[in-house]
Design a protein that fits this description.
The structure is a homotrimer. The longest helix of chain A is centred in the N-terminal third of the chain and has 11 residues, at about 35-45. In chain A, helix 1 (about 35-45) packs antiparallel against helix 7 (about 220-230). Chain A has two domains: about 10-155, Roll (Thiol Ester Dehydrase, Chain A); about 195-353, Hotdog Thioesterase (Thiol Ester Dehydrase, Chain A, Roll), CATH 3.10.129.10. By secondary structure, chain A is α+β, with helices and mostly antiparallel strands. In chain A, a hairpin with a 2-residue loop joins strand 12 (about 330-335) and strand 13 (about 335). Chain A is globular. The model of chain A has no long low-confidence stretch (mean pLDDT about 95). In chain A, strands 1, 2, 3, 4, 5, 6, 7, 8, 9, 10, 11 and 14 form a twelve-stranded antiparallel β-sheet that branches. The first copy, chain A, has helices at about 35-45, 50, 55-60, 70-75, 80-85, 190-195, 220-230, 240, 255-265; strands at about 20-25, 30, 85-100, 105-120, 125-135, 140-150, 210, 215, 275-285, 290-305, 310-320, 330-335, 335, 340-350. At the A-B interface, strand 2, helix 1, helix 7 and helix 8 of A face helix 1, helix 3, helix 6, strand 8 and helix 7 of B. Chains A, B, C: This is 2-methylfumaryl-CoA hydratase.
Chain lengths: ~350, ~350, ~350
């Protein structure tokens, strides 16, 4: 009967997830040049490949691709109403791979599969593991990643249907990298225009790089960003309701921090133009409007990519802090993170050789 | 003689309007994909038709159309310097009809006709009724609406040239709906991608829907929006001058509230993809930066559109509040609006059948 | 050896500049319709030529050109990491000429030549004069301007390699104007759509125009703008570090003030659609978030452009103030600027004849 069914979704609770569930997420999204402009205004990224059709065209792209993290945020945003509307915490990422460039005009949509479930000992929540897949309008996979998140139960004490913790690779292997990057015309790669004379071979494992600059975040900025990604997590938008939470204010979307840190990392990693994979990541502490973000990187690994003489891969730890410059590379004291640290991300970037 | 005429416009006063006056408003505006991206970042709207070229294309649009309210704001914004620069209050809208889709690349311009004048008993101001018409670059009408606004007199006590109060329909008729929506290929309309399994027939007259989420507004956000629409009403932009007003701060453009409430209404009305008509609307109370907007809807009517088996129309009341969630549908106590209510809008939306 | 070279740039100090040095600045930038949309949202500019493809097309442009000042900011932004990262103050501009229209899709890059050096008497800093050239993807010059800036020495007391102060024209000559503007089809120029009935010949030298409106600036707005231009000057972004400076807060990019004042100047100069040249400019005092910007203009000169019967040039002084309306044209008391004045800009604009 018309009108008999409640029309509003309040999101899935832990009991609503079943192993093997396949979820089609709403709202396909055409990514256009306007989104790229906004992304630029939000983070000030300066990587030449994503900034210039002429530069990208010279080295072998048909046109400047959409920033990898903008792709990530849009693919991720779609999962929020179905996966994490009742989340207590976003616990981690693994095995994220950028498999195909995205260009202005492409339409992104996302599906997720439930690959793991585990209830907490307290019995009022459980960890949901999903693999999310972003596809373009030709149904080609552009991004695949695993994520796990702590989700409330509708009724505390309910048992999980089944439990299983998936095995996830600690890092994407070098031979799995590079699909998201066309073959680069090295002779046309102009270091002066790119803003860095350091190629893949100039970085050493163990090297640490302070990215120097800081960026203060305003409420309007992270709200604009998070809405651009059609991410509806209410903790980012509702200051009225936030008054009743333990923080008392809006939380900034963790992906906003990743994009800020990545943009800051240009100063020191100007040729690391493509994020090929995300090995893992942790939002160590929350960021709030008014805080200033700084970042530093450590080279965790360096690898050739089989069959690719044009680009090499660096495995990078990207650490972001708040309200503390990174000249001395703050990270941990013993097992504990330094109180300034907000992000600890492990990813593979590609650089020209 | 050069230099002898003051170059600055201070806007029309009540005495400057005459019945039948036709006004060509300045600054035609090409609406591009970048405007759509900004609109998305400002409100986080998730209707699939406006978000995805692929989704829109599958159901019969040439490409994703520009959001109806973005069209409204741009057409409206042009009227401000000529109609409401000296307005005391924006009193109402009626008979608003979206008559043709607008696509990226279209150029919008606006003309208005003065259709009514009535001075106030106090004699220091008068109500100006205009019908404003938005056209595209082919001179096709895309939007037509009536609006009335209280405008100051240049000299209190001056008599109006003539008085006339126009008769305006209480609601647009069902047979007048649908021109702004091409025939929809129902078989291609994907509920999962659209984010709602509720079609036109699933809603009942009298049904009320709480849209749950809240959105806090920042000064930077409403200023960006209002400038995007080239709306020059100074009450939205000048905090220095606002110190001397009764509110003491900047007022947020009422259209910003409409767009926020419409975006929030996706949760519960995900398939109401097109605004076909605005029957009437009232900005009940002002919104200020820092306030959080919530919304709920009531189904006022349901109608078939003659000759259209693809879409049906719902007449919806969209109520927005500030700093108060809408689980109990706040509206009025007796004749008085609840103090939280800021918007009471009556419109027709189309949904697939 | 890999890892042996510090990867982070800390910018050039005074000693690092040599007369005749040629600098290729990083990050070519494709300017797209999305950038134009953001520019519109940031300033609310209403000049019809830049706003409407239809209007621009009718008078002889292939499509609406990118706003001249957006071109300026993007070309300028690229110079910051190489020229002014260690600047104490931005001292002035001269001989700025817009030589070719920029359209959506064009890619801008910048080179600079060091044309002058002069150390200060204190010996801890020096003035660096550069001529910066912006080019499109066809290597055509779109903008050329001289700028001088006070830069810290790495080691106080170091002598300059050579000193030379360039001679810079006080004003661009009328015969040098107009290259950035195609021949205009005057018959198609519609004053009503343009928003002003005043053509070039209606302005008199000495005439002063109050632009009436005020615009309050938010932190999020100037940060979005300055990042859009990929301008990395840290004084605009880092509130944490700013606590230790004499202002104690972030400074707003001077170019943001120019764009705000230019947009406000539409009210009074609606047909001054093209900035042909910047004769000189001074940022008299800093602007901070929360301040409200007002503006007024004085007609300093009026000139025919040889061979051009379609457009004429007005030399304009554009003065911006903060937190003070401009009805009485505040400028100087004796030698001192009025404390409200923040910008004193001298430029040539073109208007239809």
């Amino acid at each position: 009967m018309p009108g008999s069914t409640p029309k509003t979704s309040s999101g899935r609770f832990f009991e609503d997830f079943h192993l093997g569930d396949s979820i089609v997420h709403a709202t396909p999204r055409t990514v256009r040049a306007g989104d790229a402009a906004l992304y630029s205004a939000l983070y000030g990224s300066r990587f030449a490949v994503q900034s210039s059709d002429a530069f990208a065209g010279a080295i072998g792209y048909p046109t400047a691709p959409i920033d990898d993290l903008l792709v990530f945020h849009i693919v991720f945003g779609k999962t929020v109403p179905d996966v994490s509307l009742n989340a207590v915490a976003n616990l981690g990422y693994a095995d994220g791979r950028f498999l195909r460039p995205v260009y202005p005009g492409d339409t992104l949509s996302t599906t997720s599969e439930v690959i793991g479930l585990k209830q907490t000992s307290a019995g009022d929540a459980g960890i949901v593991y999903v693999r999310s897949i972003g596809r373009n309008q030709r149904n080609e996979i552009v991004l695949s990643y695993a994520r796990w998140v702590l989700v409330r139960k509708r009724e505390p004490g309910t048992l999980a249907h089944a439990e299983q913790v998936p095995e996830l690779a600690k890092a994407v292997l070098p031979e799995q990298l590079g699909e998201g990057c066309p073959r680069i015309e090295l002779a046309a790669y102009d270091d002066a225009l790119a803003g860095s004379r350091f190629r893949w071979g100039d970085y050493a494992v163990g090297e640490r790089i302070d990215h120097v600059d800081g960026m203060t975040v305003e409420e309007a900025e992270h709200q604009l960003a998070t809405r651009l990604y059609q991410n509806t997590a209410r903790v980012h938008f509702d200051a009225h309701a936030a008054q009743g939470t333990r923080f008392g204010k809006r939380l900034i979307y963790g992906g906003h921090v990743i994009s800020l840190a990545r943009a800051l990392s240009f100063n020191g990693l100007g040729n690391a133009f493509h994020i090929a994979a995300i090995n893992g990541g942790r939002h160590v502490a929350p960021l709030f409007a008014g805080d200033t973000v700084y970042a530093w990187s450590e080279v965790l690994g360096s690898a050739e990519i089989p069959g690719r003489g044009d680009v090499g891969a660096l495995r990078l730890r990207l650490v972001a802090t708040k309200n503390r410059a990174c000249a001395d590379f703050p990270l941990k004291a013993g097992d504990q993170y330094d109180p300034s640290v907000i992000l600890d991300l492990d990813y593979w970037a590609l650089l020209p050789r």
